[in-house]
Amino acid sequence: MSAAALRVAVLQCTSSPLDVAGNLERLDAACRAVAGRADVLVTPEMFTTGYDIGRDETARLAEPADGPIARAVAETTRRTGVAVVYGYPELGSAGEVYNAAQLVDDGEVRSSHRKLHLFGDLDRDRFTPGRERPRVADLRGHPVGLLLCYDVEFPEATRALALAGAGTVLVPTANMSAYDLVPTVLVRARAFENGVFVVYANYTGTEGGLEYGGLSTVCAPDGTVLALAGRGEELDVVELVGTGGMGYLADRRPDLFGEA
């Protein structure tokens, strides 16, 4: 028997920089608000600390993958019954800092991802790029993968997850209003060309020197836009239903391009 349709809550919100405790409270409130209606809540990039907070503060607030932030999120998932994808600065074993995301369900980390493609000086000034291919994990019977923001703009990142069996790609992001093309065109294209659902959760408002664009979106494998947020704060629940894509994966000719 196939799993029931995955129900995804997308949190589009302003950033609350440096307020880790407050952001964890916001996360808990959002999970309580969608409890019973959503299987998983996806937050924006670096949700727990804020994104444009400078190199020193990013390093100060960075935590190991199993640190206090992870434990607090785990407790929220146990209490509310809602899985969570959240962004945070991860402290590596050698003191390096990654722009990272984790998927937590029922108190356990199901998957993690370190941002592979660093965007401009803002990312390169404070983060070490991830070196591991994105992985597929099981979320309540659904094969899902994680990417972060700029990652989804590179076709091979989503393609790698699709080839590995992902049916849904969950993407915390911090996309600026100057790049509206990403949520309105590229995210939809990634879903269609790979035959997967793509869930893209963005900030709205301003933070530091950035103006975020909102427009969080959920796209189906056939290219249908299941949801597109506006410019303000929203908490939307979307059921991932839709027909398959064009069958590009089956018709690929990797032998011509030196690919697997």
Short description:
With 260 residues, the protein is of the alpha/beta class.
Please summarize the sheet with the most strands.
6 strands, mixed
Q: Give the N-terminus to C-terminus distance in angstroms.
A: 31 Å
* Dominant shape: globular
SS content category = alpha/beta
Low-confidence stretches: none
Rg is: 17 Å
Q: Which range does the strand content fall in?
A: 25-35%
Explain how this protein is built.
- The protein has 260 residues and is of the alpha/beta class.
- The protein has seven helices and 14 strands.
- The protein has helices at residues 20-34, 55-61, 68-80, 120-124, 155-163, 181-194, 248-251, and strands at residues 7-12, 40-42, 83-91, 97-105, 108-114, 136-139, 142-146, 168-172, 197-201, 204-207, 210-213, 217-219, 225-228, 234-239.
- A six-stranded mixed β-sheet has the order 5-4-3-2-1-14. The chain has a six-stranded mixed β-sheet with strand order 6-7-8-9-12-13, with helices on one face.
- A hairpin with a 2-residue loop joins strand 6 (136-139) and strand 7.
- Helix 5 packs parallel to helix 6 (181-194).
- It is globular.
- It starts with 6 loop residues before the first strand and ends in a 9-residue tail after the last helix.
